[in-house]
Every structure is written in C-alpha cells, then in structure tokens.
Amino acid sequence: MHTVELQQVRKSYDKFVAVNDLSLNIEQGSIFGLLGPNGAGKTSTIRMMIGITVPDSGQVRMFGEPFTRAHLKRVGYLPETSGLYKKMKVSEQLVLFGQLRGLSAGDSLSRAMKWCERMEIAGWMEKKTEELSKGMQQKMQFIATLLHEPEFLIMDEPFSGLDPVNTTLLKDVLLDLNKQGRTILFSTHRMDQVEKLCSSICLINRGQAVLQGTLKDIKGRYGRSNVHIEYEGPDEFLRENGLIQSFNNYGNFVEVRLAPGADSQRLLHMVAQRSRVNKFELVEPSLEDIFIDVVGKADA
Amino acid sequence: MHNIFLFARREYLETVRKKSFIVMTILLPAMMFGFTVLPSMVASKKSNETQRIVIATSDEQFGNEVRDKFTKPSSDDPIPAKRRRTDGSTRSFEVQVDTKVSSEEEAALTAKVSSHEIDGYLWAPANALAERKISYRSRASSDFETQSALSGAIREALLRQSFRKHGVPAEEVSDVLKPVNIDSKKIENGKVTDSSGIALFFTALLLMILLYVTILMYSMSVMRSVLEEKNSRIFEVLLSTATAKELMAGKILGAAGVGLTQIGIWTLVTAPLAAQSISMFGESIHLGLTIGNMIFFGAFFVLGFLLYSALGAALGSAVNSEQEAQQFQFVIMMPLIISAIFLTPVIQQPHSTLAVVLSLIPFCTPLIMFTRILVETPPAWQIALSIVLLVGTIYAMLSICSRIYRVGILMYGKRPTLPEIVKWMKYA
Hints:
The complex is a heterodimer. Chain A is an alpha/beta fold. In chain A, 33% of the residues lie in helices and 31% in strands. In chain A, the strands form three sheets. In chain A, strands 6-7-8-3-9-10 form a six-stranded mixed sheet, sandwiched between helices. A four-stranded antiparallel sheet of chain A has the order 2-1-4-5, covered by helices on one side. Chain B is of the alpha/beta class. In chain B, 67% of the residues lie in helices and 9% in strands. Chain B contains 17 helices and eight strands. Chain B has a four-stranded mixed sheet, with helices on both faces. A two-stranded antiparallel sheet of chain B has the order 5-6. In chain B, helix 8 runs antiparallel to helix 15. At the A-B interface, helix 2 of A face helix 1 and helix 9 of B.
C-alpha cells in the first residue's frame, strides 16, 4: 500500500508554477527522499500533501483514500523553519501540541517527558522556549511532531542547525521509528545527508520530477561510472581525451565522471603514463553527482 | 471547537501572565483618575488659602458692598451654594476698602502686592466706575476663580448702586438679585433621577475613553501577535493540525477574554466607588456607574473588539513587519478617531440626527451608541437595529478577514498590494 499518492498535482502562484503535474508514490514503511535544490517545489509539494494548501489540479491520496483532514491525526510534520511559540514554557507547548493532536493533557505530558529525556533536553522543560538554543528548539519541534505516534512522518530539512552528535541522535530515532513500521519522508537539498537513509527517492527540479525510483535502481542505472584518482604529477590526462565527461579536481585528488561507454582501464593506463597513481577507485556516483548530471542535462 | 478552545486558552493565559497586562490593568484607571479627578481635587484644596485683597475706590459704599459680598455670605449669595467646596470650606477672603485713589496710593498698593503683603487690589477710581473699566491687579493674573468672584460681586454692587439711585428699596433689590440655580436632572423611565448633567458628561467621557482605549489596544494586540506568529513561522506547524479559521477564532476569542477580564477587574474595583460621590470641579458628583451601564460597556467592548480585531488579524497576516503594518493601521484607527471627535456633540445632543446616524454606522456603533445609552437611553429599536447591523458587519468582516488571514499567514517576503489582497478574498 502507498502511504501517499500524488497524481498529476499542480500548484501555481500567479504565473509562477511551483509544482508542475507532479506524481509520486510513497511506499508504506519506506524512507522516502524528496530531493531538490532550493526553490524546486519541495515545500509546496508537502503543503499540498497535508492540506495546508489545495492543489490547483490533480489528486492527493493518503493511506489509500482521497485526502481529508481526518488523516492529519496520523501524520507528523516537522517544518523547515522551526515554528514554536517563543514565550511558552517547553512543557506547556508540548502539551498543547499533543492536545491539538487529540491527546489528553496528562498523556501529552508523560509522553513529552519521555521524549525530552531521550532527546536530552529534559532539564529544559520548565524554561521558556525562547531560552533554548536553535538546536534544542529543533529537537523540541521534533518531539512535538512525534507525540501522537504518527504513522507517517514528514521531515523538512530535519538536520538543519544540528551538530553531528544531535544529527546522529535524530537519525537513530528516525531509523528506530522506521523499524517499527512508520513511513518517513525526508525533504532536503542536502543529498549527502539522506543518501544512506532513503530507500527510494524523487528528485525534483523546477516543480517537476526529474528522477524517481528506488535508490538501488537509480544507482544501478548509472553504474560505476565514477572514478576517484589520487595522483602525483601533471594532470594533463584530464584534458586530452574523450574518456572523461566531467571532473572535479582538488589538486592531488580528482573525481572523474567517465563518458558513456568509456573504459576505466584505458584511463588508468593514461594516468599512469605520466603521473604517479596512489589510488584509483571505481565508485558509484553519489546522489549529488546524479542530480547535477540530470539537472545539468535538463537545463542544457 | 476543541482546537478553538485550545488556541483561545493559550492566547488568554499568555497575555494575562504578561507584565504588560498587570501594568495596564492598574495604570489605565490610575491615569484616567489622574487626568480627570485629581486636578480638580488639587485645585479645590489649594483655594483654601486666604486671599488678601484691597479695594481702592473713591466710592466707599461701593467698596463696602463688594467687601460684604466676600466676607458675609448670606442665603441669597450670588455665588451659588454649589460652588462651595464639598468639604465645607469656602475660599476665604480678607478684604479692605481703601478710599484713597491717588497715583501715590496706586504705587504703594503695587509695592504691597510685590512684597506679598496683599495678594491683589481692585483699582476703581470714580472715572473707572463710570466707564465700568475696573482693573484687578495681582501676582496671579490667571486666578480665574478670584476674578470671577470679584466680577460677580462688582456687578451686584453696581446694580445695587444704580437701583438705589432710582429709589428702589433695599429689600426689593435683594429680591431682584436673588440668584437662579438650575439643577439639571436626568429623567429615566419616567422618573427623575439623582444623576446630574455634569456627572453624566464626565461618566460618559470616562467610559467612552476607556472603551476607545481598550478596543484599540486589544485589536492592535491581536494584529501584533498574528504578525509575531507569522514571523516565527509557527503557522506551518499549526496548519497541519488545525484550520486557519480555528486559529483566527481562537486568537480573537482569547484576546476578548483578556479584555473582559480586565474590564471585570475594573468593575469590581470601582463598584464600591461608584456608589459614592466624588468631588470634581467643586461639585459633588455621583458617577452614573450602574451595573446596567457596565453590562452595556462589556457588550459594546466585545462587539467593537470583534469587529476591529478581525481587521487587526487580517492586517497582521497580510504584512511582514510592524513598519509595514503601521502604514495600514489608519484603516483600523480612523473610525475610532471619528467616533471620538463627535463625542461632545453626541453627548450634548444624544437624539440629534448626527448622533442617530453615527450610532447606526457599525464601525462607530460601539462608541457612539454606548455614549448615547449613557446620556439618554435611545429608543429600543435604535439600539436593536444598531446591534443587528453591527453583528451582521462583524459576521461579514470575520469571513472576509479570515480569507485574507488564511492566505496571508503563509505569504512571506513582499508586501501584498490591495488588488492582491482582494484576490485572496476570492480564493475558495
């Protein structure tokens, strides 16, 4: 079953088309990545998914039914920018969010306490929200989305403003929740952050899906066409032949994307002729490489 | 409904706990008291001092008569009894008559005034009396109370003089000069009540200012808190659990609750005072603060507040900063200011066409109709009609404003133009 199905969803603001006939399916129990650069239409897509805005055309289905507001009780949404009442006490605010989701005040509080302990902000529950650091507020917002134990979690840039320790903390919690069968949607422009987490992705650019499917399929489609080379000596090999499609040169280290059909062994041979090779590795392209590749082609 | 209640309670608790709420609850009545009652109380206390006055006149009888007016207040005192202080004290005078009117004497008297030996002197030589151009010279030339007392006394003395010349007997003169005292009373429900005109005026003024200030203050606070929440981007989260309508309704109801709490506190505190008379401008005033009036006050506060706070919420959602909001605030303030400008004519003639028309314009109804009710209870159909119109307008404004609000709270960055806002209203 699909947790979310978008069918030909479209949203425009005046003449600007934010989301252009986008279709996507999010498999139940999966970790789904909605990826794209800033302004690609990720947040607009999410807003339509949970009824904050209504699509101009197309259909949104959730949990196998046409979307209604009643579905929201089963959804948790962490927005991109933290949205909290600054003057409220942390505990009061978490209780309010729990109550808005239909929990009793007592339930909300006991769940909030448990989560605050796990997220290491238990000592701050009686403080005003504005006294918390940005990272702590992000964790608090995160807790607010989890209190009602939603089946479907939407995380819009969840790791922004978090240090590596807290990023790992959050990641572990999310993986845990996924193991319990909850569906998670990541929306981010930091593809490296979610590459290892997501099972399927949808890459969008200018409101349109440019690439979607399971991560395995996509990477498989691109093959091991990337080469990392550590070398000493001249770098003329980068320029002189038809083997290389593009590269990123860092001095003694270069990431090379091979031209379609090119043989990596020929490249190795050429590099070794004039330079000293310390490392020569065939790697899968990163999501970022794929994205740049796809978007570059679309823009060209 | 559950969500509306949650938002309203949140709004209410947050505002009531603020220091500014406590400060305003205490400060506003204190300020009103300070601006109205206090100065007149201070003024009447000050006038207990004895004024030493010399009457320099060639006509001794005239001088004596003026002096008697001051020193021997009789039952037919031309200074109305009402002008006496409620604490029983009158402004006391020490008056001497000086029949020398030479220029040396004038210089000597001037010197006495300068040296504080006397407070002032009346310069009335024969020719000045004939031309009725008498001058009073004192250090405090703006002491209007002394001057008005003097001019009353002089006029009476001159009148007596001229009656005497025409041979009218003294008793008859006194009879003619007996003062007339108009004591205005309000007739309510066919009965003459105790409340006097001036008391009514001040009560109306006081309550109307209070109503004006509270409506303006609370609708602005709704605007500011919507703006604040818009900037903290909290709406994204809230809209994934509640609708924009619930959010706006909760906010407005919460703020209305705060306003009513404040008015309730004021009513409770002033209730014991209301029954008592207070001294104002030398008069004992019985404030017309009845429970009925306070209920009307609460009702018109709620209605006025709902109307203006809907505007405030829409405005707060449409703009991005306080500075931008200020450019549009006149939309909210204009009708309130107009109501305040027309306050005096409405109090003086509460049944005039102007007052009736103004009180039926929904944006002016809360202030003007309330004032009319205080001063002279208008026909029931007018009150009913004004409330029906007002409620209808509130309903229309809430629905229009909630549309602006719904779109506005998710629009960041640029300030919307008026055509854009109109377009928002049309979104389904």
